[in-house]
UniProtKB/TrEMBL annotation:
Encoding gene (name): argC
GO biological process: L-arginine biosynthetic process
Any one annotated GO CC term: cytoplasm
HAMAP family in the record: ArgC_type1
Lineage of the organism: Bacteria, Pseudomonadati, Bacteroidota, Flavobacteriia, Flavobacteriales
Gene Ontology terms for molecular function: N-acetyl-gamma-glutamyl-phosphate reductase activity; NAD binding; NADP+ binding
Record has NADP as a keyword: yes
PROSITE patterns: ARGC
The organism of origin for this protein: Salinimicrobium profundisediminis
Protein name in UniProt: N-acetyl-gamma-glutamyl-phosphate reductase
Main location: cytoplasm
Amino acid sequence: MIKAGIIGGAGYTAGELTRILVNHPQVALDFIYSTSSAGKPVYAIHQDLVGETEITFSSKVNTNVDVVFLCLGHGNSKKFLEETEFSKSTKIIDLSTDFRKTEPSHSFIYGLPELNRRKIESAEFIANPGCFATAINLALLPLAYAGLLKEDVHVNAVTGATGAGTSFSGFTHFAWRDNNFSSYKAFEHQHLSEIGQSVLQLQENFDHKINFIPNRGNFSRGIHCTTYTSFEGELEDAVGIYKMFYANAAFTHVVEEELHLKQVVNTNKCLVRVQKFDDKILITTVLDNLLKGASGQAVQNMNLMFGLEESTGLKLKANYF
């Protein structure tokens, strides 16, 4: 059994990780560390876990676990690792932005399986991708692989309220979010750097802009993303490129019908639809921001790191109605 620990246990991503790991056939959840909830049963915060686990939040960290998931706020993972020394055999999966930008100063692998599967299988440290970045990367990477990103890319995506985390703000308050819609961080969202990095990994000569408008939706979870750019070929050519690129992907599927969030919420799937309009290609992607966009993908990476079947513990079903 893989002995696992979670750091920062009270947030949304940690709650999703706990739900997956307590039912994972190859994992024993050793501890869930939380400074704000130490001593409380986990189900006191993640209330749907009543009857699923009796584990309590811990004020101590076991530095000898096989794998640790860092579910800390952006900027805090790096600081935590500077203050806490895990055993040399402990694998680390970070869900923050701290290590997503590839640098010579660290050995973290960018954990998008559709891009870096072989590297992930032998990695010790994983930087789990951002939720918007996952949706946009999965829309663009097949074209980048084929060298067909030849002009600016335009992206419009909507995320649910859980994308902002559990910290309260004026933009997460129910009275503001309900029956409302807004955009934010236009053209300067923090996920743009990791998206550009991934595209350049497959198409080194890409030198155009990725224009990204993120939006807040009045729903709890999910991302609906539309991406378009120029494309000279036929629709059949484009669909063939996407189906070939994702032929062996465990959770990314190319479909022909119109997409909506109920197909993917509460699953680790990303669905992709390709359309052609005149000289433009439109790629629609949908995923659950807390699962394929965060915790589900983190477990997907863990499975690869430990030589397990990639989908182990992740056969989750959408709540369609």
